[in-house]
Input
Amino acid sequence: MGTGCASIHLAITPKTPHEFTFPKNFLWGAATSAYQVEGNNANNDWWEWEQTHSSGARSGMAADHWNRFEEDFTLAKELGHNAHRFSIEWSRIEPQEGQWDIVALEHYASVIRSLRSKGMEPIVTLHHFTIPLWLAHQGGWTSQKAPALFARYVEKVAEYLGSDVFFWMTLNEPGVYAYKGYLVGEWPPGEKSPEQGIKVIDNLLLGHVLAYKKIKAMYVRKGWKEPMVGISQSVLIFRACSDYSLRDRVAARFRHWMFNHLFVQALIRGHAYCVGVFNIHLPQTKTLDFIGLNYYTRDFVQHSGFGFPGILGQACTATVTQDQHTGKDNSLSWEIYPKGLDTFLKDFSRYKLPLLVSENGIATNDDAQRTDFIREHLKAIAHAMEEGAPVIGYLYWSLLDNYEWSQGFVPRFGLIEVNYTTQKRTIRESARRYEEIIRSGKLRF
Ligand code: FCB
Output
């Protein structure tokens, strides 16, 4: 104005808030696993491992969920949940090879009845990291007998519990299981052997296929409505430590393919084809009805050689620059990166199967952080669904504070706080905020 200077107008378009409505039949709830919450699972490999290897923490009574499931599900119902994922402890069902414990089967039947009576859909995992001691002592999943033994146990469980179950998940995070137990040796049996790791993946693939068939055949035989059978796949965003390093980028791509896609692709395409190292051939028929995705974080990866496992690279999280990292971590130093969930839901849409977020959660002592975490991840889901991702539900990890494997009881993941001295449950504020979203079925962003 009279200064002779041209004025510059910055066009800032205000973001119009919009509302996303989740489908009416969307599954809302939380997840747990037997070993982490039940307590006293003394007949499996983790228990044995804890006596000699853990950093001091032993699972012991855990959250005593074996005795308190009724109370826990009453709280979940109060929080608006309409679904709950839990796992069956194989070592309780088959304490000795070929011997079935009917009392344990009956226990899980009451767990399922309790959920159903409260209007919650049971989502049943058949293998969540632990195996019976008798199997561990025969080589666990490296044994050629393991797939058939697993399938026999699954058949027994399906026969006993199947009339009331629609969603089955055969395996939880098979890749993580093989990696932690057989490649880096951080979990039982503490092996560091790529050959054994590959053998385990082969056997898990076969185990899933056999179990899938047993479940399907049982339902046909009994005349029950055909169930959905899937797996829980861990998914992690992998980013190169340095975008300028081709080698780092290759390591990140390779990890992405190996850890996020290989197992599912092997099942869907009917054969495993990891650069010639896997040599089993799986049937071409369908063996996956839906995919569970467990999403937590993003990792930064750098090149560490061209052999195996060097090609997978190694973590460099501590050295990444601030512009690469969001700067927000959970109490286990896992980066909080909600966008990754959106990425994966769109990425996995290519398989044209329903997707269930079967785990997503945060370990934190700051509950306000949990509220934000859930909201941001639900936004990511809404975003992906708007772009067509076939998401059928969201299960927060975890309903309760629990035993976090080698990290013990320190990480607090629960919507419900557990006092491990008294076993008293206290609903956290974040669970109430999650409940509001569930009850409205809407998210504004
Ligand atoms: C997943 C596991 C689950 C829990 C969370 C934090 O990888 O499936 O048991 O430990 O991580």
About this structure: The chain has one domain: 19-444. Residues 33, 36, 172-173, 176, 234, 294, 359, 397, 404-405 surround beta-D-fucopyranose (CB under 6 Å). The chain has a mean pLDDT of 93. The CA atoms of residues 19 and 444 lie 4 Å apart.
